[in-house]
Amino acid sequence: MKNLFDIKDNVTVITGGTGVLGRTIAKYLALNGAKVIILGRKEDVGQAIVDDIKNDGGQCEFMKTDVMDEACVQKNCDDIIAKYGRIDTLLNAAGGNMPGATIGPDKTFFDLDASQFSKVLELNLTGTVIPTQIFLKPMVKQGKGSIINFSSMAAFRPMTRVCGYAAAKAGISNFTQYMAAECAKKFGEGIRVNAIAPGFFITEQNRSLLTNPDGTYTQRGQDVIRQTPFGRMGEPEELCGTIHYLMSDASKFVTGTVAVVDGGFNVFAM
After folding, report:
1. How far apart, in Å, are the Cα atoms of 55 and each of 25, 40, 64, 98?
2. Which residue in 42, 89, 100, 127 is a FRET match for 109, CA 20 to 30 A apart?
3. Dihedral sign, CA of 79, 82, 84, 85?
4. Could you give all domains of the chain from N- to C-terminal order, each with its CATH number?
5. Catalytic amino acids?
């Protein structure tokens, strides 16, 4: 019987692949046979990740991009098709937050910076829509493809502080469900669109919010641990299995789902 989890030679594009989570996922997929293309803004960081993956025997390359620039993303897509002939998986991992789009304990809603709120929406939500629109085209042409978006715990419940980020991630969950039906109805069952919703993982973006310089948890970090039945933060590699499943034929009849990887955070009520 065929190995449903086989991803050998799967041409996989990862936007935002230079972050802590993206680089871990890229290495895992490459070492399991995928041909990984990391898209990001930081060329030096991206090349270092590629070198590390290649040194361990994986196939990977970096392309500089701006997920908000349609022409740039289209050029990335054209270059990938020219070299590999197809695109099997798109992982939309690009995103982030801005101070003005948050509301700290010492501030109120009136302190929200509407322009930064808008930029956070654009980076996370529009920055998912544009690559999806562009990389979906070759998938439709070849009759098969898997798109995996990055949602968040903040999409499920209105967490304090992260006003703009939460709104954007809720939009990504909704967009994922919309696109799943849109693609299946108009392009056939070969195109699947799902999302992954990580719980709390320490990244460069949230490190100072969740941990102190000595490594202990801040009050925010302690709140997260209290809400997580597993009693700890996630490790980046713990996202890899779910992504592997969603991009492989093991999830051939799965579309429109938001897969939660959170140590129980989202189901804990007290």
Report:
1. 16, 20, 21, 35
2. 127
3. positive
4. 11-199+234-262 (3.40.50.720)
5. 165
> Under DSSP, is residue 32 helix (H, G, I), strand (E, B) or coil?
coil
pLDDT in tens, the chain (270 residues): 789 999 999 999 999 999 999 999 999 999 999 999 999 999 999 999 999 999 999 999 999 999 999 999 999 999 999 999 999 999 999 999 999 999 999 999 999 999 999 999 999 999 999 999 999 999 999 999 999 999 999 999 888 999 999 999 999 999 999 999 999 999 999 999 999 999 999 988 788 889 999 989 999 999 999 999 999 999 999 999 999 999 999 999 999 999 999 999 999 987
Whether the Cβ atoms of residue 41 and residue 250 lie closer than 8 Å to each other: no
H-type alpha helices, 32-69? 43-55
Q: How far apart are CA 126 and CA 99, in angstroms?
A: 19
Rounded Cα distance between 207 and 215, Å, is: 9
24/60 Cα distance (integer angstroms): 13
- What does the CA dihedral 172, 175, 181, 185 come to, rounded to 10 degrees? -130
**CA–CA separation, 211 vs 64, rounded Å?**
31
- 195 burial via Cβ count (<10 Å: 0-12, 13-18, 19+): buried
CA gap 249, 1 in Å, rounded? 13
Please state, in angstroms and as integers, the Cα–Cα distance from residue 28 to each residue in 19, 24, 67, 182, 231, following that order.
14, 6, 23, 30, 25
